[in-house]
Amino acid sequence: MKTVNAAILGIVMVLMAVQASASQGRHVDVEVVSDSGNVFQLIPHKEYNTGSTYVLKQYLEARKGENYNILIRNHLSERIGVVIAVDGRNIITGKKSSLNSSEMMYIVEPYGHARLEGWRTSDEKVNRFYFTSSADSYSVRTFSDTSAMGIIAVAVFREKQRPAVLHEQERSLGKAQGAPAAPSAPRSEAKRTAKDEAGTGFGSEHYSPVVKVEFEPENIPVEKFLLKYEWRDELCRKGIIQCRPEVKNRLWDSDEYAPYPPGYHQR
């Protein structure tokens, strides 16, 4: 049997996020939540089926400088594998992702919940996700890659053989292949990403232990979630959200001097 190295969260955290704000699929819900527990606003865009895969696209309002977590809720009675890419890079390996079944993935237990907090750098640690400019993003600073900037992507895979009893979890003796550290941004790339687009940075180190298990995914994902995150002013400009101009106060916001009457000629 082909074995895919997959990481499973050592501690599954119970989620208290608002159900109505989730990206709701047939088998899995996906949310993006701040450290304070606030759910980032999601705006529906498009949903469709391509072959046997259900695809859900949504916009997300990002808040600059804020740490965020990707929350996965499994509604199936079997474990699932999830390949997750941020700005086009697999969050476990840092490699360019095509959301394929051959990539490193996290495992979520039956009816379980998982909280993904950052770029994995070892079996024990991650570096936090936070919203930042594209020039400061992990994808640009490390790989000069802007090919999928501002996208949080989740591909959900069912297991080929669904055993009644799950494999016993065994701790790995070696280190997980981690995302490399982020060096300074190349000058040419900094110029190319001068526009203040939203990206995800390589934040502070955080303890987040995992173990490795055997998991053979099906070749095709059953669901894909694509979240395009952008700053509020960009969402307003595109008309994704309705942003009304600020209403002026007639006594507070008046001009400093009296205006001339219409048609009055100054001497």
Characterization of this structure:
This protein is mainly β and 267 residues long. Helix content is 7%, strand content 38%. The chain has helices at residues 138-143, 187-192, 232-238; strands spanning 4-9, 23-24, 28-34, 42-50, 53-61, 67-74, 80-86, 89-90, 105-108, 113-116, 118-120, 125-133, 151-158, 198-207, 210-215, 223-230. The strands form two sheets. Strands 1, 4, 5, 7, 8, 9, 13, 15 and 16 form a nine-stranded mixed beta sheet that branches. Strands 2, 3, 6, 10, 11, 12 and 14 form a seven-stranded antiparallel beta sheet that branches. β4 (42-50) and β5 (53-61) form a beta hairpin. The longest helix has 7 residues, at 232-238. The protein starts with a strand and ends in a 29-residue tail after the last helix.
Describe this structure in a few short sentences.
The protein is mostly beta strands. It is built from 3 helices and 16 strands.
